[in-house]
Write a structure and sequence with these properties.
Blueprint: H1 6-60, H2 73-78, E1 84-89, E2 95-101, H3 111-121
């Protein structure tokens, strides 16, 4: 039976520990980025809903024409988040208007990484918010 030298054993141990630390750090960074992205999306959706509610209020008071509703122009100018799509659906579940900001057109990462990321973090989930006029 062959024994392993202490130097080789320590080198293998250091490499394994360093690899585990790298994997843990990468996982933590991806998790934080995913949480930040979800938080930014929720903030953007809240902002869009408030703008649409303000538009409905202005229409009800006669300051805006009803044909312009929903108007996403202010959101397109003010929000800087990329890869976000907003869709306004009427009461009859028919999409009235939708708009998207940015997004990545060309693949910039390996396919295996995308598969692991999508399996782990489930990106692209829809967030809904009802637009009402409470004023």
């Amino acid at each position: 039976m062959k024994t392993i030298s202490l130097k080789l054993y320590l080198m293998i141990l250091i490499i394994l520990i360093a690899t585990a630390c790298l994997f843990a750090t990468a996982t933590f960074v991806l998790y934080q980025a995913d949480q930040q992205s979800k938080q930014q999306t929720a903030i953007s959706i809240k902002s869009i809903a408030q703008q649409l509610e303000m538009q409905r209020f202005r229409i009800s008071k006669g300051f805006e024409a009803p044909e312009r509703f929903p108007d996403f122009d202010l959101w397109k100018e003010s929000d800087s988040s990329s890869g976000l799509c907003a869709r306004f659906t009427g009461l009859d579940e028919i999409v009235v208007k939708s708009v998207c900001r940015g997004g990545i057109t060309a693949e910039q990462w390996p396919g295996w990484f995308e598969n692991i990321y999508r399996w782990s973090f489930h990106p692209g989930q829809e967030i809904e918010r009802q637009v009402t006029q409470d004023r």
